[in-house]
Structures are given as C-alpha cells and as structure tokens.
Write a structure and sequence with these properties.
Blueprint (H helix, E strand, L loop, with lengths): L1 E6 L2 E4 L4 E9 L1 E12 L6 E6 L5 E3 L7 E6 L4 E6 L8 E11 L6 E4 L3 E6 L1
Parallel strand pairs: 2-11
Antiparallel strand pairs: 1-3, 3-8, 4-5, 4-9, 5-6, 7-8, 9-10, 9-11
Length: about 120
C-alpha cells in the first residue's frame, strides 16, 4: 500500500504565506513526478504545480511568481510554499504522485486526502 499524507493547510489573511507538505509512505520503489492540485467550491480540480524526479517544475499561470514547489527525495516529500496568497487561492489542495510500488510492473497515480486552504480578504 502507498499513502500520501498532506499537512500545512489553514486560514490565512490575504498577502500571507503557507507551506504545504505531502509525505509518501508505503512499499515505494521510486517516485516519478509529484505535484499539487486544487479544487475550489463549484469548480473543477486544477493543476497548481508539478515537479519531476529531475526537479523540472511547472506552474499554473495564476500562481507563477508566488508559489514554489520543491521535493526532498530522501523523505519522499513534496512541498508547496505559497506566498502573497489571495482569496482566489482558497481551495482544497491535493497532493499527487506517480509512484512505482515495489514489485509492480508500472507506476500508478496516487492522491492525498486534501488539505483546506482558506485566504480571507
């Protein structure tokens, strides 16, 4: 089994910062890309940022220059540093990872349970 556990969400005022963490655990052989997605009420889930195993990053236009994704391969953890937060960043943030389990033939897509981020104006 593989689990992704997120932490770091909460309530913050506009202009503030939060740091999300997501730790993968279980029978992991390797982790390919990791990323963060978010879903606001009444909206579809959207990509926020991704990072490959070679640290190539990709960001949604709406967060470029404000959010930074990083990963610690030794800890199987991905982070999302969110600065200059805006009310429109309010959403449930989900961690995602492409993981090859020990003994598996191919990698699979895994999701965390989500963590709420609320930005007040």
């Amino acid at each position: 089994q593989v689990q992704l556990v997120e932490s770091g969400g909460g309530l913050v005022q506009a202009g503030g910062s939060l740091r999300l963490s997501c730790a993968a655990s279980g029978s992991i052989f390797s982790i390919n890309a990791m990323g963060w997605y978010r879903q606001a009420p009444g909206k579809q889930r959207e990509l926020v940022a991704t990072i490959t195993s070679s640290d190539t990053t990709k960001y949604a236009d709406s967060v470029k220059g404000r959010f930074t994704i990083s990963r610690d391969n030794a800890k199987n953890t991905v982070y999302l540093q969110m600065n200059s937060l805006k009310p429109e960043d309010t959403a449930i943030y989900y961690c995602n990872a492409i993981i090859l389990r020990i003994g598996a033939l191919r990698a699979s897509n895994y999701w965390g349970q989500g963590t709420q981020v609320t930005v007040s104006s």
